[in-house]
Design goal:
Elements: E1 8-11, E2 18-21, E3 28-31, E4 36-51, E5 74-78, E6 83-85, E7 115-117, E8 125-127, E9 132-137, H1 138-141, E10 150-161
Antiparallel strand pairs: 1-10, 2-10, 3-9, 4-7, 4-8, 4-10, 5-6, 5-9
Length: 162
């Protein structure tokens, strides 16, 4: 039986939050609950924090090291670890040799915003029912500079279907 998804925000994770850690390939996995086209997603902080170094303050979404300024490191990928939100072209690095892109700017949001609403995709993402998606801490995703990382953040996940 085929049905149409009404446009708007749909909660994806049910009652249990999706949690991800700052190191050790401890991403947060969730499965899409409906098929359709998604133009953006948002994450709402429920608990926890992450850190990139013991000497810097904890954050919901990123590293508070001044070299990252107001950049964020919470990334949604597909099951193959390919960035979806933000899209790959929005990711950057510190310009260090061999370092992979793992952080981004999201105007209006900062390290401890209670939610992150990603920018609208030009080409909505086609998803299938039960398709796995993952939430990563940027340094953990690219296996770079994560030795001093710690913490775990738990979120609710919403998708905006068109």
């Amino acid at each position: 039986m085929y049905y149409t998804i009404s446009e708007g925000w749909q909660k994806i994770n049910g009652e249990k939050p999706v949690c991800f850690e700052a190191k050790g390939n401890e991403y947060g996995a969730f499965n899409m609950t409906k098929r359709g086209r998604v133009k953006t997603m948002k994450l709402i902080h429920r608990s926890g924090w992450v850190k990139c170094n013991p000497k810097y303050k904890a954050s919901f979404w990123s590293c508070t090291n001044p070299q990252y300024k107001e950049h964020l490191m919470t990334i949604i990928t597909d099951a193959d670890k390919k960035p979806v939100l933000p899209p790959t072209e929005d990711l950057t690095n510190l310009g260090m040799a061999g370092e992979k892109a793992h952080f981004y700017s999201l105007p209006g949001y900062h390290h401890n915003s209670t939610e992150l609403v990603f920018r609208t995709l030009v080409n909505p993402l086609s998803v299938s029912n039960n398709q796995e998606m993952q939430i990563w801490y940027g340094q953990d995703m690219v296996d770079s500079r994560e030795e001093g990382n710690s913490g775990k953040t738990c979120v609710d996940v919403y998708a905006f279907y068109v």
